[in-house]
Design brief:
Elements (H helix, E strand, L loop, with lengths): L7 H7 L2 E5 L8 H11 L3 E4 L9 H17 L4 E4 L2 H7 L3 E4 L6 H8 L3 E6 L2 H9 L4 E4 L18 H8 L6 E4 L8 H5 L4 E4 L1 H4 L4 H14 L2
Parallel strand pairs: 1-2, 1-8, 2-3, 3-4, 4-5, 5-6, 6-7, 7-8
Helix pairs in contact: 2-3, 2-10
The structure holds 2-trifluoromethyl-5-methylene-5H-pyrimidin-4-ylideneamine.
Protein name: Thiamine-phosphate synthase
Cofactor: Mg(2+)
Keywords: Magnesium, Metal-binding, Thiamine biosynthesis, Transferase
Length: 221
């Protein structure tokens, strides 16, 4: 999908409502939840299969392929969390890595011009990610979260503000406990979008939850 690195503007547009999900983030059928989230207006999807009872090996590959085909049907780019080999095997649109995974530099060499996202928690990690070729950074946890068992302390929007006050214009997506009720500060502080799991994946009406968030994000410009 990418013959050159994605332009910043296009990356910022994709980050507006970034849905992340794995099999253990849902109580109902993940395929149905993803269809509904797409109907509600998500702009980007990340396959994040980790934690208790997560699939692995062949099962994980086939599950990922099913979700990827739903994204393809609706022209939503498909990002794989952590598992670079899986991303390459699927010819995914990109990879998201954390600080404990292999370096962004090493991953960039493996994935060519696919999208590369990096989780960051301080200014040094943001600057390092940019220097190593990240197309966007995830900053968080903005608010407290139960989803990521080893999440760091909630930091609010201070790092987003710090990065923007230093004149760094890297595409930023906020993550961690974000809902329609608390998404506005993420955008007002200079974030280009919000990344969510539970507020959509455990919603009784995922399409409605996604639509409410998307309309809020779009109203903030
Ligand atoms: C731990 C994570 C932090 N940020 C992001 C993203 F929102 F994509 F930037 N994804 C993750 N899996």
């Amino acid at each position: 999908m990418f013959l050159t690195r994605i332009a910043k503007k296009d990356m910022r547009d994709l980050l507006r409502l970034y849905f992340i999900m794995g099999s253990n983030n849902c109580q109902s059928d993940p395929k149905h939840v993803l269809e509904q989230a797409i109907k509600g207006g998500i702009s980007l999807f990340q396959f994040r299969e980790k934690g208790n009872a997560a699939f692995s090996g062949e099962e994980k590959y086939h599950f990922a392929k099913e979700l990827q085909s739903i994204c393809k049907k609706h022209m939503i780019p498909f990002i794989v969390n952590d598992d670079v080999e899986l991303a390459l095997a699927l010819n995914a649109d990109g990879v998201h890595i954390g600080q404990d995974d292999e370096s962004a530099e090493a991953v960039r060499r493996k994935i060519g011009d696919k999208i590369l996202g990096v989780s960051t928690h301080n200014l040094l990690e943001v600057e390092k990610a940019i220097a190593e070729g990240a197309d966007y950074v995830g900053i968080g946890p903005i608010y407290s979260t139960e989803t990521k068992v080893d999440a760091k302390a909630a930091q609010g929007t201070k790092l987003i503000l710090e990065v923007r006050n230093k004149g760094i214009n890297v595409p930023i997506v906020g993550i961690g406990g974000i809902t329609s009720e608390n998404a506005a500060p993420v955008m007002k502080s200079g974030g280009n979008g919000v990344s969510v799991i539970t507020t959509i994946s455990l919603s009784a009406d995922p399409a409605k939850s996604a639509r409410e968030l998307k309309e809020l994000i779009d109203s903030l410009g």
